[in-house]
Amino acid sequence: MTAEATPATAPELLQSVSDGVLTLTLNRPEVLNAITPALLDEVTDALREAASGRTVRAVIITGAGRGFCSGQDLRAATANGLDVGAVLRDHYTPAIRAIRSMDQPVIAAVNGVAAGAGFSLALACDLRIAAESATFVQAFVRIGLVPDLASTYFLPRLIGPARAAELMMLGDTVNSARALELGVVNWVVPDSGLAAAASELAGRIARGPRSIGLTKRALEASHENDLEAQLAVEERLQTEATTTSDFVEGVGAFLEKRRATFTGS
Ligand code: LHQ
Questions:
Q1: Angle CA(41)–CA(45)–CA(50) in degrees, nearest 5?
Q2: CA atoms within 13 A on the CB side of 4
Q3: Strand locations in the chain, DSSP E?
Q4: How many CB atoms lie within 10 A of CB 253?
Q5: Ligand 1 centre and the CA of 35: distance in Å?
Q6: Tell me: the pLDDT tens digits for 203-235?
Q7: CA distance linking residue 112 with residue 196, whole number of Å
Q8: Which pairing describes strands 67-69 and 113-115: parallel, antiparallel, or unpaired?
Q9: Distance of alpha carbon 126 from alpha carbon 58, whole angstroms
Q10: Rounded to the nearest whole angstrom, what is the distance from the C-alpha of residue 118 to the centroid of ligand 1?
Q11: Can you tell me which atom of ligand 1 is nearest the CA of 142?
Q12: pTM of the predicted protein model
C-alpha cells in the first residue's frame, strides 16, 4: 500500500495559548481574512472551549497579513442558492453570542482593514486595540446590504446613533486616528508594536481577578436594564465577587501592603 500525499493546506484559524491568553488568528491573508461559515464555526468552537475551561483568562482575535477581516467572502456570498439568513443564524451569529456570553474578555487586535462583518466582529469584542495603519469600513452599503453580525447593535451604543448612521449609510473608510476619536477603538499603536501591545494588555487581564469576568456580565446586563434592574445585578454580582479567593487575596494584599497575586478564582 502506498501512502497518498495529501496537499498541505494552512489552517484558516491559528490558535495558541500562552500564559492564560488564547490568541485566535484569522488566516486567509490572500483575501484579507474574509470569513466563511467554516471559519466562523472554528472561531465559535474555540471560544466555547475557552469559555468552558479555566485555562484561558483572556482572548485576542487578530488577522494574518495586512488585513484584520474583510467581512463575508464575497466570492462565496454569490454562490447559487445561498440562504444568507441560514448562514447568519447557523454559522455567524453564534460567534457573536460566544464572545458576549463568555466571562473572559475578548480583545480585537485590529492589524489592518476591518470591513463589513469584519468590522462587526471587532465591535463585538470587549476592547479594541488598533495598528496605526488599520482602517474601518461599514462596507455593507457599498454592495447594497444591511450591516449584520450585530454592527447595528454595538456601533450606535459605542459611538452614538448619528455617528453610526454616518458610517453605515455612507460606507466611508475611517482611519485609525478617526476611529480613536470616535471611540471605535480604545488604543492605537504603531504597526510594529501591535502584537506586543495586545499581548501585554491581554496578559494584564489574564493576571487579573475573577471579578473582571463578573464585570463583563454587569456591563452586558446594562445594555437593556433600567437603573433598578442594574442595581440588583450589581448586588448579585458583588455578592458573588466577595466569595472569590481573589477578593480575599486582594484585600489581604492591600492590608499587607504588597502586590496581589490573583488566580482567577
Ligand atoms: C476579498 C474580500 C472579500 C473576497 C478583499 N471577499 N475577497 C454578507 C453576505 C452574506 C452573508 C453574511 O454576511 C454578509 C456581511 C458582509 O460582511 S458584507 C461585506 C463584505 N465585505 C466587503 O464588501 C468588503 C470587500 N472588500 C473591499 O472592499 C476591499 O477589499 C477592502 C476595502 C477590504 C480592502 O481594499 P484593498 O486594501 O484595496 O485590498 P483589495 O481590494 O485589493 O483586496 C485584496 C485581495 O483580497 C483582493 O484579491 P486579489 O485576488 O485581487 O488580490 C480582493 O478581491 C480580496 N478580498 N475582500 N470580502
A1: 150
A2: 2
A3: 13-18, 21-26, 58-63, 67-69, 106-110, 113-115, 127-131, 135-137, 174-175, 187-189
A4: 14
A5: 10
A6: 999 999 999 999 999 999 999 999 999 999 999
A7: 16
A8: parallel
A9: 10
A10: 10
A11: 23
A12: 0.96
Residue to substitute in 39, 40, 70 for testing ligand 1 pocket (most ligand atoms within 8 angstroms of CB): 70
DSSP 8-state code for residue 125: S
Q: Residue ranges per domain, the chain?
A: 13-206, 211-255
pLDDT digits (tens, 9 = 90+) for 63-83: 999 999 999 999 987 666 778
Ligand 1: residues within 6 Å at CB?
A: 31-32, 34, 70-75, 77, 84, 87-88, 92, 113, 115-117, 137, 139-140, 142-143, 145, 148
Max CA pair span of the chain:
71
CA–CA distance from 55 to each of 8, 45, 51 (Å)? 30, 15, 9
Mutate to test the pocket of ligand 1, among 40, 41, 73, 74 (most ligand atoms within 8 A of CB): 74
Question: Residue 61 in contact with residue 35, Cβ under 8 Å?
Answer: no
Among 26, 30, 32, the mutation site with the greatest number of ligand 1 atoms within 8 A of its Cβ is: 32
Atom of ligand 1 nearest to the CA of 173: 32
CATH top class, domain 13-206 = alpha beta
Provide the b/e sequence for 83-122 (b: ≥16 CB within 10 Å): eeeebbeebbbbbbebbbebbbbbbbbbbbbbbbbbbbbb
